[in-house]
Design a protein that fits this description.
This protein is an alpha+beta fold and about 280 residues long. It has helices at about 20-30, 55-65, 70-75, 140-155, 160-165, 185-200, 210-225, 230-235, 240-245, 250-270, 275-280, and strands at about 35-40, 45-50, 80, 85-90, 90-100, 105-115, 130-135, 155, 160.
């Protein structure tokens, strides 16, 4: 019996769903802004090595200010960005095309694909809004423009990266396999980001990209006065329960106190005579 190991639960633990603190967010963004890092060689010498983190800084910046899913971010096209109106159009998500093997009860994945998002769900009465337009700021506009400049001018083994991407049909997308210009798989994205974190000396579990989504949700709730319906639409979730039960890192007591205060203020104003309402 001593040799029997207790199975590990796949349930998300509390530390898995917390938003970034401001310090954590700043630490990550600062690491992704570096163009060189110090590396200790086997002989003990420390050398500065040039790195290219611009792609991941672009991804992190977009996710930080929009809260979109990693799969939605990896599927963005250049044309999805309207710089003048400062709008990003979320229209598709990167996933894996798979076939279900009923005999072995497994799903066999074949190749990556871009799935079009739709704001309808015939099998459910709940409203879903994955297909959405989100406001963006100057920081997103600037980093996307910088990344496009890199893609248009970078040489990979003497060959223009833009030309490589065009040959693989990925030139209209922001992100591809960096050296090959092919469509990335979700696993490739995770592995490459993990390598970036290791190079930067950051904990790979602590600084997962998905925490940007939790951070956005948490701060959106505070900024919008705990209006879960508005936050749900921004997040592209199925219903408001995803916002309150999964993504936000606000304590239940804080949420209830804020909601109660807003309700009391509303009721007080509702019952005031018209003269007092005009004065207030």
């Amino acid at each position: 019996m001593d040799d029997i190991k207790k199975p590990k639960s796949k349930r998300l633990h509390s530390h898995d769903v917390k938003a970034f603190s401001s310090d954590e967010c700043n630490t990550l963004m600062e690491a992704l802004s570096k163009d060189c890092i110090e590396v200790k060689r086997k002989n003990g010498k420390i050398e500065k090595v040039r790195v290219e983190f611009l792609m991941w800084r672009t991804i992190a910046t977009i996710m930080r200010y929009t809260g979109i899913r990693p799969g939605e971010c990896f599927a963005l096209k250049w044309q999805d960005f309207d710089y003048e109106r400062k709008i990003a159009k979320i229209r598709r998500a990167l996933s894996m095309d798979g076939e279900v093997n009923l005999e072995q009860i497994i799903c066999e994945y074949t190749e990556p694909e871009y799935k079009i998002l739709k704001n309808e769900n015939p099998s459910s009465r709940s409203e879903i809004t994955p297909y959405r337009d989100l406001r963006i700021n100057d920081e997103i506009v600037n980093v996307v423009k910088e990344w496009r400049g890199y893609v248009n001018t970078h040489l990979e083994k003497g060959r223009a990266l833009e030309e490589i991407r065009r040959a693989n049909g990925t030139e209209e997308f922001l992100f591809s396999v960096l050296t090959k210009g092919t469509t990335p798989t979700p696993d490739y994205c995770c592995q490459e980001y993990r390598k970036v974190l290791i190079k930067s000396g950051l904990n790979t579990h602590r600084y997962r990209l998905y925490r940007f989504r939790h951070t956005f949700c948490t701060e959106a709730l505070r900024a919008l006065g705990f209006d879960t319906k508005k936050v749900q639409i921004l997040m592209g979730d199925r219903d408001p329960s995803m916002v309150t039960q999964v993504y936000n890192s606000i304590r239940h007591e804080e949420l209830m106190e804020e909601s109660a205060d807003k309700l009391l203020t509303h009721l007080e104003n509702y019952t005031k005579p018209k003269e007092q309402k005009a004065a207030s």
